[in-house]
Amino acid sequence: MAKSWKMPKWFYQLGSPRWCYEITGKLLPGFAIVAALLLVVGAVWGLAFAPEDYQQGNSFRIIYVHVPSAVLAQSCYMLMAVAGAISLIWKMKVADMVAKSCAPLGATLAVLALATGAIWGKPTWGTWWVWDARLTSMLILLFLFIGVYSLHHAIDNEINAGKAGAVLSLVGVVNIPIIKYSVEWWNTLHQTSTFKVTEKPAMPADMWIPLLIMVIGFYCFFAVSLMLRTRAEILEREKRSGWVRDLVEAR
Amino acid sequence: MSEPSVDISLTRVFWITLRRDLLLAYRRRNDLISPLMFFLMVATLFPLGVSPEPEFLSQVAAGVVWVAALLATLLSMDSLFRSDFDDGSLEQMLLSPQPLALLVLAKVVAHWTVSGLPLTILAPLLGVMLYLPGEGMSALIFSLLLGTPTLSLIGAIGAALTVGLRKGGVLITLLVLPLYIPVLIFGTGAVQAASTGLPIGGYLAILGAILALGVVLTPLAVAAGLRISVSN
């Protein structure tokens, strides 16, 4: 028989709600400060100091909210699916809580991406909405988030709700590559991605550096809100355990 | 007591389950009619509600027939595991030594035979009612023939996840509709292309590819969903 393959120790520690609660408590202030700094710097630089676009004028500046929220909505879905898979395979309680916390956050981000996209579309394309591949697949992503969220809340048993949500989010993963490559596969109104791993961005550094700062800032902000939600979820589910009682009594 | 014999070939298990479900469907013939009537009625609402002009209808015919077929499939989906869940035979299937995914596939095939197939056969009638151009008719039939089994397979995931819930009916639409959209896009795309004289091979190939992927993967997801729902 093949030697059984072991995951590193920290992976198993993640499975302990108490360890997770403590470690996120330490990480939280750091992430919050970094997120606030990056978002302020990125927003001020992007909205006030970055040069105007020669075609779109000032209206392009909504990119500093639109792109980060759209990128993050997709990452959030992937995180939800991966966390769901971990909770299905290793029966890890915390992964389940993370997956559950991802659904409402992801739905909010998808709404933000769609709304900013519509506002940007009006002056540039002359219309709020077009039924093009990327917009439609983003809308499907929003529906998937809503589906997972309502499934979580329809099943009373928390463990089974988590499993059912995990199965649904794994099935929905097929949509992610479709969104990602929709602008490259189909000829659509939507412009191609701003950032690519292999190429230099097609815009001047003064424009894309604040965008990059905003993207990283959004990620940090997302990490903060995800940690807050997950910590609340941990306390809610572990309310009968000794350490949560001690925590509450110490307050 | 002797060990019960479990020495049945997988093919035989598949056929037994298929036969059982078809027989059950035949015994409850009246339930089969309602999705078909729904299909007809939805298609009737469009000329009455939007516009009875032949030029307009022939443009939207493909989409209307496809959306109606999709909704009719969705409507019939909730009953896929419901009666088995209520009378306990679903638990027996979960306990059986045969792979659950195979039993699920047989059940879905049976479901498609009594829902998707009649819809496909009925579709040309709706096409004529909605002035679908003659060139689009064969594309409509072939796209539905390749698309409706995928709809049944994807719908089975939603049905499996919601079978244990009292109010599963509304939730299932919320879970399944977003996953139906790609099938809808390529299905109507094929009919539109055929109506304007373009080749439809590519659309049908994609529908076939989605179906092939669905036949292999969705029974696994359905089986996982059923195990979760039954343990509720």
Radius of gyration of chain A: 20 Å
Q: Report the major sheet of chain B.
A: none
Q: Determine the mean pLDDT of chain B.
A: 89
Largest sheet of chain A: none
* Fraction of residues in helix of chain A: over 70%
Q: State the separation between the terminal residues of chain A, measured CA to CA.
A: 52 Å
> What class would the helix/strand composition of chain B place it in?
mainly alpha
* First and last CA, distance of chain B: 32 Å
Structural class of chain A: mainly alpha
The greatest inter-chain interface is formed by:
A-B, 23 and 22 residues
Q: How many beta-strand runs of chain A?
A: 0
Query: In DSSP terms, counting alpha (H) and pi (I) runs of 4 or more, how many helices of chain B?
Result: 10
- State the oligomer: heterodimer
Sequence of secondary-structure elements of chain B = HHHHHHHHHH
| Approximate strand percentage of chain B | under 5%
Q: Determine the number of helices of chain A (DSSP H or I, runs of at least 4 residues).
A: 9
- Uncertain runs of chain A are none
Which range best describes the helical content of chain B: under 10%, 10-25%, 25-40%, 40-55%, 55-70% or over 70%? over 70%
In total, how many domains does the architecture of chain B comprise?
A: 1
- In terms of per-residue confidence, which ranges of chain B show pLDDT below 50 for 5 or more consecutive residues? none
Number of strands of chain B: 0
